[in-house]
Structures are given as C-alpha cells and as structure tokens.
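hiii, so i know i said id send this last week but things got crazy w the move. better late than never?? heres the sequnce for the chain we talked about at the cafe, plus the structure i predicted for it. fair warning i was half asleep when i ran it
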Amino acid sequence: MKNSKRSLENIRTLSDPFVVSNQIYITVSHARESENDYVSDLAKVVDDAVEIVVENITDVQIVGEKIFYLKDNQLFFHHEDKDDEQLTQQINQILQFLPTPDGELLYYVSKQTKVAPFNTVTDKPTIRRYTKLHYKNDGEGFIDEDQTFQLHSIDLKATERLVKTFSLPIKLADVFTKKRILLIEQTNDEDALYLDQRLIEFDPTRDLSKILADQEIAEIAEATYSPDGHQVLFIATDQTYRNRRVAQLFRYDAHEKRTVLQFSAEEMLEGPHGDLVIKDQKRHVKWLDNDTYAFETGYHGHNRLYLASVSGEKELVRDEAEALSDFLFLEDTALAVRSTVDHPSQLINLANSKVVLDLNETYLAHQKYVFRSPDGEFIDGWFLPNAAGVKAPVVLYVHGGPHGAYGEGFFWEFQQFAQKGYNVVYVNPHGSTTYGQDFIESVVEHYGEQDFQDVLTGLDVAITQHADLIDEQQQFIAGGSYGGFMATWAIGHTNRFTAAIAQRPVTDWLALAGSSDINYNFVETDMGATPYTPEGRETLIEKSPLTYAPNVETPLLLMHGEYDMRTPSGQSEAMYTAIKLTTEANVEMVRFPQAWHGVSRNGFPNLRLARLDVMFEWLARYGTLEA
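okay and structure toks below
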C-alpha cells in the first residue's frame, strides 16, 4: 500500500495521561516502517502538539512529582534538569513495576526462565518437555514449566533487594506502603483445567500474606487501595460461566474484613474492538477519595464512565459514542483518552468535552442502526460508506470472540476498505459483549444458528437502508477467528456471497479442542460437547464448517499466521484441502510467517499492509473494483 498521511505509521495513539507541576504528560504509540515495529514515547503536551521526553519506553509510573519508566528492560528515574538515572541492572525480564506513594521505593516483578519461549535458532537445539495441560500462550510461545517469578524492591540509590520468589505467576496490583502491597496470585499450576487467582495483601518486610479475596473468585484483572488504605476495589470474574463470565466490580472492607459485590449491572473491562496498537489500560476503576471513585464499563458497543460512592450510589457522567482507553480525575483536572470511528485517538477535557490533543487526520464516520433479529431481539449494526459516495460493493465483516464487540471505536482496517471503495457493514450478533451476561450466553451451544441469522439480517437491513450506495450484486463476507468461523460457516450454508475471506478461522472443533492455547475447556463449555465421547464428536462435527466444505461454491481466501496458537494453522489447512478435494470452488491460502493470532491488530506492520493488499487483490478478482 502506498504511504500517505492516513498510513499506519502516521497514526498516533495516546495512553497514560498524568499531570506533574501543571504539565500534562502522555504516552504516544506508533508504528515504524523502516524498523518494522511499534514504539511508545513519553511526551509532554505542548499546546496542541507533543514534545518527546523519552523515546521507546515500555511503561511509565508517576507519583507526586516523580516519574519512573521502563526502557530496554531497565527501570529509570526521570529528571528534568539532568540525565535520567538507571536504577536496575536486571538480566531477567521485568514484567511490571510500581512505586510507593512517596516515590522513595519501587517494587517490580521479574520472570526467570531457562528455555526460550519460541523458535530460537541455534547450532545445537535442545528438546522441549511438557507435562502440564496448559503449555503455551499465543503471542508468547511455549511455557517453561520451571519458570519462577521474583518480587524485588529498589530505592532511589539503586539499592536492590530480592523480596521473594514465587513458583506461580503473580501480578503487582498496587502499593500503599513498603509494608502493604497488593498481589494477584495464581493459585493452581498449568495442569489445572482453569487457572484461578486470589487477591492478597503482602508485607515484604516480614514475608506475611493476608488473603483478601479467593472464594468464588476466578480471575482478577486489577485492584487498587483507597487513599486511606482501608478499602480495596478490584475487578474480577467469579467461578460461574468460565471462559465467558462478565467481569464485575468488588470491594474489600478492611474494617469489616469482608468482600462485597459493588457493581455488576454492566460489563467491566469490555468495549468495542479496535485495531490500533495502544498500551493496555492500567486501571478501569480509580479512587477519587476514601468514599468515591470513578469506573468505566462497556455498554452496547461503546464505553460509559461513572462516578460512584462506597455506599452504592452512582452517577453516569459520560455516555457518548466512543471507546475510552483511560481517564484521570484530579482536583482541578478531568481528562480522558478516547477514540471514535473517525478519530483514532484523542485526549479530551471531561469537564467541557473539548479536545486537548489530537495528532491524527479525521476519517470517515459511520452510521449506527438498530434492527430486530429473527428471534425478536434488537441488534446493533453499523454502516461505513465508501469514500467516493457512489454505488459500490459491500463487505460484511464479522468480529472475533464470539465474545467481543464492534462499535464506536476507531478501526483502521475498515477505513482502508472504505477508501478503497467498499461499503462496510458490521453488527454485534448474539454472543457479543457489552450487552450483558444473558446476551453472551445466548450463543453458547448454538454457534451458527441465531448468530448466523443476525449477521445476514443486519446485512439485509443495511442493503435496504442504503440502496443508493450498496451494489446488491456484489456482497462479500470477511472475518477473523470466530469471524473466520462465521465466514466459512456462511459459505457452507448459502451462496449469496460473491467471495469470502476467512482469517485464522475455526473450521474443525474436534482438532481445536486439543491444539489451541485456550485448550479443551473452551470447546467443551462454549460448544457444550467434548471430543472424547461419541455424542460429543457428533456434535462437534455437526458444528464444524469443515463438514460443509463439499457444499462450498463461493471463492474463499484463507489467511493464517504461522505462529498462531489460538486457532493453529491446521484449521485453515484442513478447510483448504477439503475444498480442493471435494469442490470446484476457487480457494487460496495465504500464510504469514512469524505471525501470531493477532496479526491483523499487532503483527509486524509490513505484514499488516501485505495482508490488506492480498484481500483487495482477492476482492478485485471477483468484483468490479481495482486492487
């Protein structure tokens, strides 16, 4: 693809806003074409632009007037008037760090491993040995069963101490004093069907732990002390509906020594999908004082922001068509980082909604519509018109998950389709997030049923509403992961599409059960069947697109990353072979070297661009637009 102001490398995404001495700092992330990677820079906001302070950091933490950051796997202390100080000399990977509230001491977690996680080429390769059920992670590689995790402390004089070594993964959640820190601790090893966690308060000076939450809790995403240290807010899922449970907000009261459910009316941690590289949001809930806090939820394809009190009162303070990726409340400052369909990333003033910083071009806007699915449920859909504003082909794009969501965030890939001349339709079918637990559950054991009808009905409604822009004779379907499942499922059950694109699809549930990094349990719980009984195998075969390969007449492009551990490349290979052997349909498979499951979101920039070129060439082969 030709370089332009709208190219991937020119997009800047924002994260981690904070204020020091009335100066706003922010992290700016972007792709680099020549280095073929992504970087994040620490910057100051100066008028409506940025001034880079430190290039290529991994993380940043601020307490009071002190700024610390992680760069090249070492911790640094930032100075305005002299060179920054390197505090650590660590040879093991630093996973995360947090300073004490006075900034005089830092705690950090490192990982010790003796085995390279993936595809290290040497003159004398060694074998890998596995005994655990969970032995790999997509995007990371194979797990060293002898790995350990160390908690360290280091002060501003670079005096370091190894606090404790853990045999199972830990996450540093918050620090109140040098004697009180919150740890999220994995409680069972990789041989367990589900990996559980608990929240503990740890005293590093005495190696003492106090459990704050473990019963009924499955996974904990984040936790934070109140300013006085007497309460802890944490976001977690409980033991019900493993793999697909809505995250909820809990509160631990140190005085009463009990944990209570604080909020569960909407989904925590969820929001609309996007495809920009941006640093993960550190906190979705933040204390304002000892009685009030702010938190973010996902709701119907966008994010909401609430203010609430420990007594249970809450106020919806922001409910806009946007995806929030961070927020900050100080005494005289209220900021948020957001994206919208036409703006990749903006820093806004929450008090007046004015844009404080926007480093990007303005893109096309979409139109939301709501329709009734065949079961009577209201479903959200969006229509992004082609840039030329003329009658043109339409691409129905299906999201992954299925427990994910499209919506009001920025999607660079969709904008590229629109600029190329395609209309894009995307909907949130049954099973999508941001609509509550019941809606998520509705697709379980019913893949390819109501969800299939939802996406087809959503396309039909869009065609009717936009007959002046959509060429009904050129309908395409595309999707990745579950969206790839839906694309291959669709062409096995209808011939309405001119051509299809299935990326990293699930085509064979039997094979996936033992080969995916999310393992047997996802297939068993979401499909309601096990591959280890005759009845289970019959169900999984019935629900696999591979079974319907002989019905396929639609030209199919299969795309897969060769490192994919979520839906291994054999899923595409099996479908490719089946169509080749049993039909006359045109089928092509494109493989992406050194690419994991998320190649379209965080893969090498050159592969992301090549991927779009391949798709446009495929669609042009069967449609009327040029590649």
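btw The longest strand covers residues 258-268. thought thatd interest u
miss u guys!!
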